Request: fold
Amino acid sequence: MLKTIAKSLIIAFALIGISLPTSPVFANVCDSSLPADVREANGCNSSKDNLSPAIQGIINGVIGILSIIAVVFIVVGGVQYMTSGGDSGKVKTAKNTILYALIGLVICVLAFAIVNWLIGVLKSN
Reply:
């Protein structure tokens, strides 16, 4: 079972690694070679403005990775449940895996909402 979990995590991290370079976090909208009016339109007035999107992108990326891991564990718990064969110990382990993964997913969603709300509040001040 651990081999299955390890394979699933490797696949998840590979997919994340493939998609990260195309993420808007890596878009260089504040490049000094751009004209001043374009940089100003992109919100590149100060170093404070440049820092918050980067921090927000990093935090959202980490939360996204953790959410994917939680979903993988939900699937792992479902597979454990289906292959338990009625053994009460295995059923309990599978249900706990699903429960804890769901709790982790809810925490990830709440963390995403709180971080984005907080950065929005801090940007407006």
User: Anything to note?
Assistant: Residues 48-125 form one domain. The chain has four helices and no strands. The two ends are 50 Å apart (CA to CA). Residues 62 and 90 are 31 Å apart (CA to CA).
